[in-house]
Amino acid sequence: MTLAPGARVGPYEILASLGAGGMGEVYRARDTKLDRDVAIKVLPSALAHDPERLARFEREAKVLASLNHPHIAQIYGVEDQALIMELVEGQPLKGPLPLETALNYAHQIAEALEAAHEKGIVHRDLKPANVMVTPEGVVKVLDFGLAAVAAPPDNSNPAVSPTLTMATRAGVIMGTAAYMSPEQASGKPADKRADIWSFGVVLWELLTGHRLFEGETISHTLADVLRGPIDFEKLPRDTPPAIRNLLRRCLDRNVKNRLRDIGEARVALEAAPTDQTTPSIETPKDRNWIPWIAAAVVTVALVSLAFVHFRGKPPAPAAPLRLQLEIPGANPSGWSFLSPDGRKLVVPEGRRLKVHFLDSGETRDLADSNGTPIWSPDSRFLVYPGGNQLRKIAVTGGPSQTVADFSGFWGAGDWSKDDVIVFGAGAAMFRVPAAGGVPVQITAADPARQETAHYRPCFLPDGRHFVYIRASTNREKSAIYLGDVNAKPEQQSSKPLVLSSWGPWYAPSVDPNSGFLLFVREGTLMAQPFDSQRLELTGEATAIAEQVEHNDSSGYGSYSASNNDVLVFRQMSASAGQLTWYDREGKVLGTVGDPGTYQDLALSPDGKRLAWSKFGGKGTNIWLLDLASGASTRFTFGATKDSSPLWSPDGSSIIYTSYNDLYQKDASGLKEAEILVKSNEDKHATSWSRDGRFLLYDADHRGWLLPLKGDRKPIPLVTEAAHVGDGQFSPDGRWIAYISSEDGALPQILVRSFSMNKAGTAVEPGGRWQISNGYGLLPRWRDDGRELYYLGGDGTVMAVDITASSGFAAGKPHALGARLTQQALWDSSADGKRFLSPGGSIGPQPFTVIVNWQTPLKK
Fold this sequence. Notes:
Blueprint: E1 8-9, E2 12-21, E3 24-31, E4 36-42, H1 45-48, H2 51-64, E5 75-78, E6 82-86, E7 91-92, H3 99-118, E8 131-133, E9 139-141, E10 164-167, E11 172-175, H4 182-185, H5 192-208, H6 218-227, H7 241-250, H8 262-271, H9 290-311, E12 321-325, E13 337-338, E14 344-349, E15 352-357, E16 363-368, E17 374-375, E18 381-386, E19 389-394, E20 401-405, E21 410-415, E22 420-425, E23 429-433, E24 440-441, E25 451-459, E26 465-472, E27 479-484, E28 498-499, E29 505-508, E30 514-521, E31 524-531, E32 536-537, E33 542-545, E34 559-561, E35 566-569, E36 577-583, E37 588-596, E38 599-603, E39 609-616, E40 619-626, E41 632-634, E42 642-647, E43 653-658, E44 661-666, E45 674-677, E46 683-688, E47 694-699, E48 702-707, E49 715-716, E50 723-729, E51 735-741, E52 748-753, E53 768-770, E54 777-781, E55 787-791, E56 796-803, E57 809-810, E58 814-819, E59 827-828, E60 834-838, E61 847-851
Antiparallel strand pairs: 1-2, 2-3, 3-4, 4-6, 5-6, 7-8, 8-9, 10-11, 12-61, 13-14, 14-15, 15-16, 17-18, 18-19, 19-20, 21-22, 22-23, 23-24, 25-26, 26-27, 27-28, 29-30, 30-31, 31-32, 31-33, 34-35, 35-61, 36-37, 36-60, 38-39, 39-40, 40-41, 42-43, 43-44, 44-45, 46-47, 47-48, 48-49, 50-51, 51-52, ...
């Protein structure tokens, strides 16, 4: 119903049209009784002429009228099929806005939502068009709760996508397409957490000036809401970590993991700093001075802390100081551990342990190690796995000593103030005196949780309790737990502290009764307050740094903290890169595609296309790149994790992992994916035989052979107890190259013969040959089978000549000139003359050192 100026609705005189929306046309009117201007929203005819819905609307309007808040536009009542509302003078919300302004407006919106949610009222259609800003900068949220009774609009034009109400088999979709929550988009019931999602989308738009989800049609937009990537790298650089973390929690598609109360957002916005500038000590011309400046800064900071502690006075809050530290020779990626006194950093160079002294800039070479080391409480010694033993060595050098015998898969460890060492070995934790002795088992894997490993313990201040990871084949059950060094396996706590697959680190604070638990969540380093007396987490987790280096398969994270407020971490080298072709000598031949994040590279058999997995917000999906044109196309649209693509021998289809399961999909993308292997284990396909009959895949640190004909029953690739994976069929199908790591030893490249019995139910026994004479990963065959490649520990491409005309013979491995920056990301051309990998020249990634890193968390 259209109203002309001068028309009346009850005691209200129409003055002018203000526009139209999903709930009907809106007019400016004069209240002739109270002598004030109001806004009148005339209800759509589909609603106004439905007695049942109109009665329901009038009942709900009475509830909505009870909302009385400075940031909510007041609803006065219902009159003649029209809604009478407060007239808000101002402009609709629009980004981008300066950081301080955006957070101010977001805080006011959060206050409005909090007031409504406390009364059980859900907005259901929060969007910038429903938020007005007065000339005084006061935010007013409009149309609370009205989406629930909106009529079906004309949804053919996504540009004017109004409030959307669409009947589906699953239920009713209500809201505006670009701002509705995934549960609304899929027709599921919506509660206050739907408003929290929409709040996150609105805040994103305030910060970036761009819609988070915007498709060509409403259907495309809904598809993006349900499955589209959320690239948090697109947020402005000055967005505080706390706000990035808030957005991640608001925009979690899993409602069970989403921020549960908008009041938490209000608190986070109140506490968030708006000045993110940090002092810089590096200039391009003075990079050689970095280690010395770093040493001086750390030394001064630590001496100051020690002086204050000696004087017995609490230290005054000091601003965090951030600097970059380069350690020549350190592995391009991998773990690093800061000593308890904050003066030393142990890093690997190949398999060698090296200790870098932050106060002097000196680096000392110590010993060969088969895994991550353990610091002594006084920072004078390291314990590490060497061969089949735990060994101890002074950080100043000298001969090492045996602590205990050790076998199994190394799971890192820690050394308590009471001189007890706790370490992980496969699916259990053990304790042993630091002076030496026989290890005693103190934890055991729980089969009910599909646990496969216990690792990365870190002692709490009492020297008795520790935190550690229990890893499960079901990622949703992998978590950080509390352990007791004096308990038996069946006595250990079964209550998880934090859901995470990466090792925790406890950092004490100036308060002897509390500290912070560091852990990784979705690639972001988090810190959460921990009460060391009550042994429980308190408060909210805060984001410290994004894209922190961590290893999905091992659970190690490259971050650590000292006992005196120093934090060191290293960010992922794969955070962004340019796909680059190298020749055998390492010369750059050219680049393809756009700079970005590349994972799980897989060249098609004809060498014309590349499949890779790309992370975006909560989801990882498979993308395809045409190497000739540089055009990329999205191949999967999952909202969780699609990764590890593998081409079929003829290039017509791709197998990939979606969460734990293997799927096969036509490479054209026109057909739906079909499930190939379903089980709880985390798995990924590694090779497809040329004849199309067999598939190799990894699951639970083991290699498996899957016949693609018949009953498709998986068969173990090897029977020996070893960490086996990344199997690769030779072109003629007679041999399989794979990696194997036994008894904690470094991974080696092996080749074994391959044949099936006549029934096709088992692998026939045959020969086995060791190919590498040192660290080896990711084997690849040349197309004619006469050469085999793999990566050494420092990213060097190694080549081995193969003779297999009469039996199998392998030559001596020799290094090619190519060295790849991102060691886990590479593939080779069929002729072995070119290698593809993201990044530029090889070089160590810098470490980030933050002194006084806890200061912002104490505000």
